[in-house]
Each structure stands twice: as C-alpha cells, then as structure tokens.
C-alpha cells in the first residue's frame, strides 16, 4: 500500500506534467493564431495582386476568368493552401487525418500524404508574393513607356519620328521627280512636293506618335505630340531640303 509521501510525489509529478501540457497547449494556440493571421494577411495581399493584375490585363486588352465569389472561397485552413512547387498541396481532411480524393487538374499539384509544415509553406507563399510584387512593378514600369523608342525622351522621340517622315517625303518627292514627264506635269509635281506631300508627312508623323508614342497604360496628362516641331520639320524643312537638292543638282550638271 502506497504511503502518503509516495502519493505526494506522484501528485507533484502530475501537477508538473499538467502545467507543461498547459504551456504547450498555449504555445500551440498562439502558433495557430499567428498562422491564421499570416494566412489572412497573405489572402488580402493576393486579392490586391489579383485586382491589380486584372487592371493591367484590361489595360493591354487581356481578360482573365472571373475570380470565385467571396462565399465560394475555401475556409482559411492549412488544408486549403497550396504547397510549394514540386512538392504538392496540403492534404485535405480534418484532425483525423482522413484524406479526401480530389480530381487531378492539369497544372495543379496532386495532394500529398502528410508531413507538412504550415509555417514553412506560408513563408514560401510570402516569398512568392514578394516576387509577384516585384514582377508587377517591373511590368508597370515597362507599361508606362511607349512601344516606340521607349528609352528616348518625348522630345527626341517626336523629332526622330517627324524627321523620318520628312526624309521619307523627300525620297518620295525625288521618285516623283524622276517620273514627272510620264505621270504629271512639272508644275503639278512642284505643287504636290512642296505643299501636299509635306502636309501628308506631318499628318503621318502625328498619327504614328499617337499610336505608338504613348504608353500602353496611358499617361495623365497624355504625352504631347509636339505639333509645332512636326510642322516646322515636315511642312517647312522638307520643301527647303527638296528645293536645295534641286538647286545642287542643277549646279552640278
């Protein structure tokens, strides 16, 4: 029969074990609350990323499938969170560990049996979210630059476009001059090359800047097309260059 001293020792051991169990349970509860808080934070962050990506897709003319409604979102548990690439997803099921068979979808990792660390998975998800934020920032920076000569300043871009249109107009005028006796009189050709053709080149440069000289995501205010610069380059300098070429050609004959 056990003595009172042995009973007291066993009671103290039981009390110590119970306190240790209570401490472990409290620590586990704090860990679970921290995981749930991290999961909720990541969920809000991913929702914001999805909204921004949808805006970017609409800006470039690409639409994605609509996201599921709020009532259809899975419960914020570890079983609903995806696993890391090449590892798989969280095993569905409750505390009993019973696995539920899920259909295999292309591009979606198959469920795995167990041995998952939710903290490591959430850290990996946070890392992927950081990488997604970086890529979205890069995409926005690229989208704010125009497709045509993106590294150039707006003034240099406009000057290059109008100068290219004016040079093309001079070449076209010289081609028309070579066939002047066949298709038109010399007077009509001079009127076309010194009047209509420069205006046409100016309008062409204006349209090119409007189509490829503005950012894909738009700008507020819209970028200027530098109309005075284009007018001077095409309507004034082009006829002068053409007439100068004719004078030089006659002097060298």
* Helix-strand sequence: HHHHHH
Strand tally is 0
Q: How many domains comprise the coordinates?
A: 2
Number of helices: 6
Overall mean pLDDT: 75
Class computed from helices, strands and strand pairing: mainly alpha
Secondary structure: helix percent: 55-70%
Radius of gyration: 36 Å
Biggest β-sheet description: none
Terminal CA distance: 136 Å
The shape, in one word, is rod-shaped
DSSP strand content: under 5%
Low-confidence sequence ranges = 73-108
Structure explained in plain terms:
The chain has 253 residues and is mainly alpha-helical. The protein has two domains: 1-59 and 116-143, no CATH class; 154-252, no CATH class. 65% of the residues lie in helices and 0% in strands. The protein has helices spanning 4-59, 118-143, 154-178, 180-183, 186-212, 227-252. Helix 1 (4-59) packs parallel to helix 2 (118-143), helix 3 (154-178) packs antiparallel against helix 5 and helix 3 runs parallel beside helix 6 (227-252). The longest helix is centred in the N-terminal third of the chain and has 56 residues, at 4-59. It is rod-shaped. The chain starts with a helix and ends with a helix. Mean pLDDT is 75; it is low at 73-108.
Compile the SSE list and pairings:
Blueprint: H1 4-59, H2 118-143, H3 154-178, H4 180-183, H5 186-212, H6 227-252
Helix pairs in contact: 1-2, 3-5, 3-6, 5-6
Q: What's this, in brief?
A:
Helix content is 65%, strand content 0%. The protein has 6 helices and no strands.
């Amino acid at each position: 029969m056990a003595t009172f001293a042995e009973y007291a020792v066993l009671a103290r051991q039981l009390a110590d074990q119970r306190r240790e169990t209570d401490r472990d349970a409290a620590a586990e509860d704090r860990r679970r609350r921290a995981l749930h808080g991290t999961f909720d934070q990541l969920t809000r962050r991913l929702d914001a990323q999805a909204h921004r990506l949808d805006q970017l897709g609409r800006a470039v003319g690409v639409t994605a499938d609509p996201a599921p409604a709020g009532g259809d979102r899975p419960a914020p548990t570890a079983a609903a969170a995806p696993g890391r690439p090449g590892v798989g997803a969280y095993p569905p099921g409750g505390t009993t560990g019973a696995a539920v068979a899920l259909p295999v979808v292309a591009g979606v990792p198959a469920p795995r049996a167990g041995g998952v660390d939710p903290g490591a998975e959430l850290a990996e998800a946070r890392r992927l979210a950081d990488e997604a934020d970086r890529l979205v920032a890069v995409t926005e920076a690229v989208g704010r630059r125009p497709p045509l000569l993106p590294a150039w300043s707006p003034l240099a871009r406009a000057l290059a476009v109008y100068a290219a249109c004016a040079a093309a107009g001079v070449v076209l005028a010289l081609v028309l001059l070579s066939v002047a006796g066949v298709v038109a009189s010399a007077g009509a050709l001079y009127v076309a090359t010194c009047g209509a053709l420069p205006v046409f080149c100016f309008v062409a440069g204006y349209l090119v800047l409007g189509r490829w000289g503005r950012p894909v995501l738009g700008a507020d205010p819209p970028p200027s097309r530098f109309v005075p610069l284009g007018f001077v380059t095409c309507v004034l300098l082009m006829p002068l260059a053409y007439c100068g070429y004719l004078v030089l050609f006659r002097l060298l004959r």
